[in-house]
Amino acid sequence: MIKFTIITLFREAIEPYLKTSMMWKATEKGLAEFDFVDLREFGLGPHKSVDDTPYGGGDGMLLRCEPVFAAIESVKAKEPTAKVILPTPAGATWNQKTARELAGDAHYIILCPHYEGYDERILTLVDYKVSLGHYVLTGGELPALIIIDSITRLIPGVLGGEQSAEIESFSDGDNIEYPQYTKPSDFRGMKVPDVLLSGNHGEIAKWRESHTKKAE
Ligand code: 6GU
Fold first, then answer.
1. What is the DSSP string of 81-105?
2. Least packed by Cβ within 10 Å: which of 3, 49, 176, 188?
3. CATH classification of 175-214 is 2.60.40.640, yes or no?
4. Is 187 left (phi over 0), alpha (psi -120 to 50) or beta?
């Protein structure tokens, strides 16, 4: 069982995806569990404030320590071994190898930042800083979904049948799968390669290997 506790101000941006398709099936099969902590509940004062202006000046607002520490501590009180993932453009670039390392019987807390950033002291709580590449998003919600999806699909039983393990060794994120076709064999003059219609499994395997692409 893999479990994700997502700390966010925008649960409604994340939840529908987890109720759909493979993530939902993983939940139904008891292979994954997703739950949410509303950061706002740990906000300060009558307005349940979670952010403030940066010391030294500058634009925008930063997530402040108190609500974030309280939210993470509330989860760790029940599950002390849970590991914290922080989506941030300052993190290590996410890839298939890291997804594989994290896939297993574990509980991850994903802290979704929002606004211009976070108080640096929040990093003392974090086990994994993850970036999705060299561009900037408005918050950690989309990265959280990508991290969850790429890990959860590697949990045995989430994808149907033999597929999972086998294609994975092929499609490791750098070596992208070979081209695939389904019926019809001729669509508007675009024909499926003959070898794939031949029934010769040896030749098909060779063709697939020679047509496995490298990621650009
Ligand atoms: Cl993880 N967060 C944000 N806000 N922007 C990003 C990112 C993460 N990865 C790439 N850009």
1. TPEEEEEEEEEEEP-HHHHHHH-SS
2. 188
3. no
4. beta
What is the per-residue pLDDT for 174? 73
Question: How do the domains of the chain map onto residue ranges?
Answer: 2-152, 175-214
Q: In angstroms, what is the span from residue 187 Cα to ligand 1's centroid?
A: 40
Which residues is 186 bridged to in the sheet? 191
Structure tokens at 79: 């599950």
Query: What pLDDT, on the 0 to 100 scale, is given for residue 168?
Result: 55
3-class DSSP state of 151: helix
Provide the pLDDT for residue 170: 46
pLDDT tens digits, one per residue of 172-216:
667 789 999 999 999 999 999 999 999 999 999 999 999 998 887
Q: Which atom of ligand 1 is nearest to the CA of 140?
A: 2
CATH for 2-152 is: 3.40.1280.10
Provide the Cα torsion 170, 172, 174, 177; round to 10°.
40
Q: Is the distance from the beta carbon of residue 134 to the nearest atom of ligand 1 less than 6 Å?
A: no
Q: Is 88 in the pocket of ligand 1 (CB under 6 A)?
A: yes
- C-alpha 163 to ligand 1 mean position (Å): 30
